[in-house]
Amino acid sequence: MPVTSVEKDLDALTLTVVADFRAPRERLWEAYTDPRQIERFWGPPSYPSTFTRHDAVAGGRSIYTMTGPEGDSHGGYWEWVSVDAPRSFEVVDGFLGSDGSPNIDLPAMRAQFRFESTDTGSRLTTVSHFGSLDQLEQMLAMGMLEGTTEAMAQIDDVLADLASFASDQAAHAQILGDTQVRVSRVIRGTLEQVWLAHNDADLMRQWLLGPDGWTMPVCDIATSVGDSYRYEWEQDGGANRFGFTGELLESEPPRRAVTTESMIDTDYPSALNELTLTPVAGGTLLTLVITYADPEMRDAVLSTGMTTGMEASYSRLESVLASGAGGAMREAVAGAR
Fold first, then answer.
1. Which domain holds residue 202?
2. What share of the chain is helix, strand, coil (3-state, %, to 5)?
3. Is residue 88 located within the same domain as residue 114?
4. Which entry of 34, 91, 170, 274 is 20 to 30 Å from 182 by CA?
5. Domain boundary pick from 111, 130, 163
6. What is the pLDDT of residues 38-76, one digit of tens each?
7. Is residue 254 within a helix (H) or strand (E), and if so which, with residue range?
8. What is the Cα–Cα distance from 239 to 181, expressed in whole angstroms?
């Protein structure tokens, strides 16, 4: 059992949980900052979680849902206060209502996570701070301590599973809900390089092509929030031209961008794309959460072989990074600093 000690301090209004693991500190840190991994243990086994957003950076936000055995769902959020990778981070941990807004009827707490190296692996110390004794007792009555202990008991299996999160894995699409899909891929490149590759037209024309035999004659990038973008592709010779357009809603370089997406010359409803980049062992984890108008549209897009085309593009991006263009990218990144 990873949990080695629990301390309730009623005077300081804190709950401290210490857990020891045989994995290195950096591996434990990655399990908490990678949405694919944390959702495998954040919550007891009977209430697995799904993370639709996970920004491991100060000022970032995480959104997750725990689903019970009867199909009941319970939303939560983190507001990231500070990050000192791979040593510590602090968040405000609260509940969400059914409409996605903070549930003020349940207490939010300040939680500190401290990661340390030990002779046998690593130690995680979590300190939860409460606003009052009533809040602390309320959370304990709701089973917070038991849930935390059960959740941490699942971490060892995640830490031992290196293959599922390695940089040699192809792009993977995971259905998160009726209208949401998350595409994940570790790109062998730095955070700044991968961000630049999504925001430089000359570079995008080299890799964002899907299967072989296509070109990208139009690549108009949205550079500021509120700007529109337009991308068009065609097969060699000019056949089967198609494209997408949309608006840049959020931009937090070099980690996050949110855009709408509509297929040109169709009346299909638009989708919402949330791109998040996270540094991990072996490169940069790219996660793209796509929200469709309805389940039918989600299934129709997946049936087109979308993930296969995205994998071809991401594989080509890695080739660009490893080539002379990759050197030019490094110079551009250095010049932007």
1. 172-336
2. 25, 40, 35
3. yes
4. 91
5. 163
6. 999 998 899 999 999 999 999 999 999 999 999 899 999
7. none
8. 30
Selection from 47, 33, 35, 290 nearest residue 173 by Cα = 290
- Whether residue 190 sits in one domain with residue 158: no
- Hey, what are 43's tokens? 């919550």
DSSP assignment string, 135-189: HHHHHHHTTHHHHHHHHHTTHHHHHH--GGG-TTPPPEEEE-SSSEEEEEEEESS
Angle at 182 between CA 178 and CA 184, to 5 degrees: 160
Q: What is the pTM of this model?
A: 0.90
- pLDDT (tens digit, 9 = 90+) per residue, 96-117? 998 889 998 899 999 999 999 9
> pLDDT by residue (tens digit) across 52-62?
999 999 999 99
Three-state DSSP class for residue 271? strand
Same domain for 184 and 326 = yes
177 and 151 in one domain? Answer: no
Residue with token string 């009827």: 105
**What are the structure tokens assigned to 133, written together?**
């004794």
Q: Are residues 101 and 226 in the same domain?
A: no
Same domain, 191 and 306: yes
Which residue has 């010049």 as its token pair?
335
Q: Is the peptide bond before 254 cis (omega within 30 degrees of 0)?
A: yes
The residues near 177 (Cβ < 8 Å, ≥ 6 apart) are: 50, 52
* Domains held by the chain: number: 2
| CATH number assigned to the domain comprising residue 117 | 3.30.530.20
